[in-house]
């Protein structure tokens, strides 16, 4: 049976964008972790995790984001694209909005990275 989640990476110069569509939960979070790990081996200067098409963000998915943040900071900035009740709200409820850099869309995420480089 195929995984209900589709994760992919795309590159914008030396910034990698990891996008996920579908539920990020106990079953699928390892797929997200695998794509993130593969992207990190290519040594990006920044990473964006785009949860725009994510249908569910469970605690396992949040754990992947925290682990990624801990691996990267301070060398490689991480920005999470999350907006609305499915993705941003859970991150706020568990207090991760104060730990992770969260922006509502890809444009704002790239703006954040540009601002960090100035």
UniProtKB/TrEMBL annotation:
<dbReference type="Pfam" id="PF01740">
    <property type="entry name" value="STAS"/>
</dbReference>
<protein>
    <submittedName>
        <fullName>Anti-anti-sigma factor</fullName>
    </submittedName>
</protein>
<dbReference type="InterPro" id="IPR002645">
    <property type="entry name" value="STAS_dom"/>
</dbReference>
<dbReference type="InterPro" id="IPR036513">
    <property type="entry name" value="STAS_dom_sf"/>
</dbReference>
<dbReference type="GO" id="GO:0043856">
    <property type="term" value="F:anti-sigma factor antagonist activity"/>
</dbReference>
<feature type="domain" description="STAS">
    <location>
        <begin position="16"/>
        <end position="113"/>
    </location>
</feature>
